[in-house]
């Protein structure tokens, strides 16, 4: 079977190497999954480039996100049967409750991930997929889907009619837009490329702002909405100040990234903060229970994740390259082998 691995220490695409290896066999309480599709997240490029905060295992099989079918089960497996459609949980050992240092193992970083013809998972690391999702759609939920779900339905859960702000056209932002609409919220989308406006509106965005045309967008958003109740802050240092300005008094900002690609960190301007007094929270993707809750909502509403572009398994390097250049609208998929 074919598997990609990240080999060597220094960063860059030359590390992504395809290997021909023996087909895996599931051990006790494990399942063998035929991977039908995978998808890329920002963290996968950070792992590739050696900038991810968690040190990856040497020679790791990359990618947290993948969907496929169970081909074989090991002794004692009770959660799944051959033929079930499954995906993995990002923090494999984090079933529920709060995360702690003992639960930080991640698929595609410290545990072998999905960029392979077959993957072996402990049955506790996997969940069943909704029937209406095709393989490519199903391969998008593990990281971006759960992150957006927890950002939108976490402690600052917005009420119907309240305003949610999303930034950029990546997977987290578009999932957050879709989940906010499920809750009956109104959504502002901030994008650096105004020409994407129609696609945001087709997903339900009530207001689209181009931050290239309007770099000081925070005040305009606040004026047009009366203030944002929940900001899904995926922009980091380049957008954080505007997010504070856009927030309503005692609004909520979920901070999903602290640094940009150049290593600059967010700053907290005291004067701006005092105007919003926003609650600022941080989260790290989510648990298996969060993944199951999100998939239940996705199934109930027959929600369809947004896919930007699909690459063949043999073109995984091109998929990374395309994803890294940044101009996407939704998820970048790599089909199974
Ligand atoms: N804490 C967590 O648990 C967690 C989990 C997942 C992701 N995250 C973070 O959330 C952020 C979003 O992740 P994502 O995977 O959904 O999306 P992403 O691929 O990082 O976002 C891509 C979008 O961001 C916008 N963008 C603006 N400037 C960019 C630049 N210089 N390079 C790349 N993109 C740029 C573009 O949208 P426009 O063209 O519309 O401007 C682009 O389509 C990332 O920083 C990621 O690390 C955090």
Structure description:
- The chain has two domains: 2-141 and 285-335, Quinone Oxidoreductase, Chain A, domain 1 (Alpha-Beta Complex), CATH 3.90.180; 155-282, Rossmann fold (3-Layer(aba) Sandwich), CATH 3.40.50.
- It has helices spanning 42-49, 135-138, 141-153, 171-182, 197-202, 217-225, 240-246, 270-276, 288-300, 316-324, and strands spanning 2-6, 16-20, 30-39, 65-73, 85-88, 118-122, 126-128, 163-167, 186-191, 207-210, 228-233, 247-255, 279-282, 307-311, 331-335.
- The protein is of the alpha/beta class and 337 residues long.
- Bound molecules: NADP nicotinamide-adenine-dinucleotide phosphate.
- NADP nicotinamide-adenine-dinucleotide phosphate binds at residues 41-43, 143-144, 147, 168-173, 191-193, 196, 234, 256-257, 283-285, 326-328.
- NADP nicotinamide-adenine-dinucleotide phosphate (NAP) is lined by residues 41-43, 143-144, 147, 168-173, 191-193, 196, 234, 256-257, 283-285, 326-328.
Shape: globular
The helix/strand series, from N terminus to C terminus, equals EEEHEEEEHHEHEHEHEHEHEHEHE
Number of domains: 2
Structural class: alpha/beta
CATH-derived architecture of the largest domain: Alpha-Beta Complex
Euclidean distance between termini CA atoms: 9 Å
> DSSP helix count?
10
Q: What percent strand?
A: 25-35%
**What is the β-strand count?**
15
Ligand roster? NADP nicotinamide-adenine-dinucleotide phosphate
What is the averaged pLDDT score? 97
> Could you name the CATH homologous superfamily of the largest domain?
Medium-chain alcohol dehydrogenases, catalytic domain
CATH topology of the largest domain: Quinone Oxidoreductase, Chain A, domain 1
Taking all Cα atoms into account, the compactness measure Rg is 20 Å
Largest sheet report:
7 strands, mixed
């Amino acid at each position: 079977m074919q598997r990609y691995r990240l080999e060597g220490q220094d960063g860059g695409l030359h590390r992504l190497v395809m290997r021909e290896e023996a087909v895996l066999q599931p051990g006790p309480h494990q399942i063998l999954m035929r991977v039908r599709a995978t998808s890329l997240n920002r963290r996968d490029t950070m792992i590739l480039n050696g900038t991810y905060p968690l040190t990856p295992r040497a020679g790791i099989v990359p990618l947290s996100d993948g969907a496929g079918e169970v081909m074989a089960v090991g002794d004692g497996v009770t959660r799944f049967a051959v033929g079930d459609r499954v995906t993995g949980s990002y923090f494999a050992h984090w079933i529920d409750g709060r995360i702690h240092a003992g639960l930080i193992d991640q698929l595609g970083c410290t545990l072998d991930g999905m960029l392979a013809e077959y993957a072996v998972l402990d049955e506790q690391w996997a969940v069943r997929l909704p029937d209406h999702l095709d393989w490519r759609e199903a391969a998008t939920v593990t990281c971006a889907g759960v992150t957006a779900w927890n950002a939108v339905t976490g402690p600052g859960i917005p009420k119907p009619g309240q305003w949610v702000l999303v930034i950029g056209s990546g997977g987290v932002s578009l999932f957050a837009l879709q989940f906010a609409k499920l809750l009956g919220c109104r959504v502002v989308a901030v994008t650096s490329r105004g020409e994407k406006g129609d696609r945001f509106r087709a997903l339900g965005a009530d207001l689209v702002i181009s931050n290239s045309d309007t770099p000081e967008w925070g005040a305009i958003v606040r004026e047009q909405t009366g203030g944002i109740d929940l900001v899904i802050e995926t922009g980091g240092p380049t957008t954080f100040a505007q997010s504070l300005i856009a927030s309503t008094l005692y609004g909520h900002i979920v901070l999903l990234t602290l640094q940009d690609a150049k290593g600059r960190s967010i700053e907290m301007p005291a004067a701006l903060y005092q105007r919003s007094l926003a609650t600022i929270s941080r989260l790290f993707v989510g648990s298996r229970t969060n993944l199951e809750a999100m998939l239940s909502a996705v199934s109930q509403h027959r929600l369809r994740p947004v896919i930007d572009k699909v690459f063949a398994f043999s073109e995984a390097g091109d998929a990374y390259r395309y994803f890294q250049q940044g101009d996407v609208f939704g998820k970048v998929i790599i089909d199974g082998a």
